Amino acid sequence: VAVGGNAVITDCDFIDNTANSVTSADGSGAVYVNGNSNSIQTTVLIDGCNFFGNRATYSLSYGGAVGCVGNSSDPSKCLVTIQNSIFERNGANRGGAFFASYGFVTLNNN
C-alpha cells in the first residue's frame, strides 16, 4: 500500500509482502507513507493491524513493514499514528519493522 495523502488502515493483515526492485526503491514491505511533497499533508492512522514476515530487500527501500518518509524542510507533512498493531519477523536494510525519516510518528500499544 502506498499512501500520499490521508488514509485510515484498520484491522488488516499484511503477511509475507516484499518490496524488492529498483521500482520499489521508495517503498516498504507492506505500507509506504510518502510525505515528501511540499503541497500535500499526509496523515495516516494504522490501527489493529498485523505485520508478519514483510520484507524490503532492495538497498534503498524503507522499512520491512512500514516506511514513512517526509520532507526535510517541513516534517509536519508526514504524520503517522500506529496503534494496537503487532509486528513480527519484518526486515529491511533500513528499519526492520518500521522506518521513519523527516516525519512525526506516534506509536501506541503495539
Primary descriptors:
single chain; 110 residues; mainly beta; four-stranded parallel beta sheet; globular
Explain what the structure shows.
- The chain has a four-stranded parallel sheet with strand order 1-5-9-13, with no helix packed on it.
- The protein has strands spanning 2-3, 7-10, 13-15, 18-19, 31-35, 42-47, 50-52, 55-56, 66-70, 78-83, 86-88, 91-92, 98-101, 104-108.
- It has no helices and 14 strands.
- The model has no long low-confidence stretch (mean pLDDT 85).
Question: In a nutshell, what does this entry contain?
Answer:
The protein is mostly beta strands and 110 residues long. It has strands spanning 2-3, 7-10, 13-15, 18-19, 31-35, 42-47, 50-52, 55-56, 66-70, 78-83, 86-88, 91-92, 98-101, 104-108.
What portion of the residues fall into strands of 2 or more residues?
over 45%
Number of strands: 14
Structural class, judged by helices and strands?
mainly beta
Percentage of residues in helical conformation: under 10%
Which sequence of strands runs across the widest sheet? 1-5-9-13
N-to-C span: 20 Å
Helical segment tally?
Answer: 0
Shape: globular
Describe the largest sheet.
4 strands, parallel
Provide mean pLDDT, rounded. 85
Question: What radius of gyration results from the CA coordinates?
Answer: 12 Å
Q: In terms of per-residue confidence, which ranges show pLDDT below 50 for 5 or more consecutive residues?
A: none
Order of helices and strands: EEEEEEEEEEEEEE
